[in-house]
Write a structure and sequence with these properties.
The protein is 23% helix and 41% strand. With 119 residues, the chain is α+β, with helices and mostly antiparallel strands. It has a seven-stranded antiparallel β-sheet with strand order 4-3-2-1-7-6-5, with helices on one face. It starts with a helix and ends in a 6-residue tail after the last strand.
Amino acid sequence: MTFAEAVDALKALADEGVVVKATVWGREDDSYSLASLGGLLVYAPGDPEVLGALSGELRDAVAAAEIATVFEVGSSDYTHTLALWPSRFVAAEVDDINGIQIVTRDGRLHVHKDRPWID
């Protein structure tokens, strides 16, 4: 699965408007959980108008820069941000039972619908 396909799967889950659980681990299989988050998953696209406000070399530099795809997990009171960088992406898997699992050079992310009767 490609980075774009993994992002599309997360966007589709966000579009459902359901509560999710997101867990972040280190890169190694036996690493501890670094974060366990719950709440709504929301796609947080960047502002395309920012580029229009820039000019010259700064505009060229920003236009050529790598841009992370950002999602927020949480409630209206408090959210956590998940930033996915294309250059850090390694692999991803998606299925209806286990949700979305993404491996990056920095760690592993698992996002699935909150299922309190199972989890």
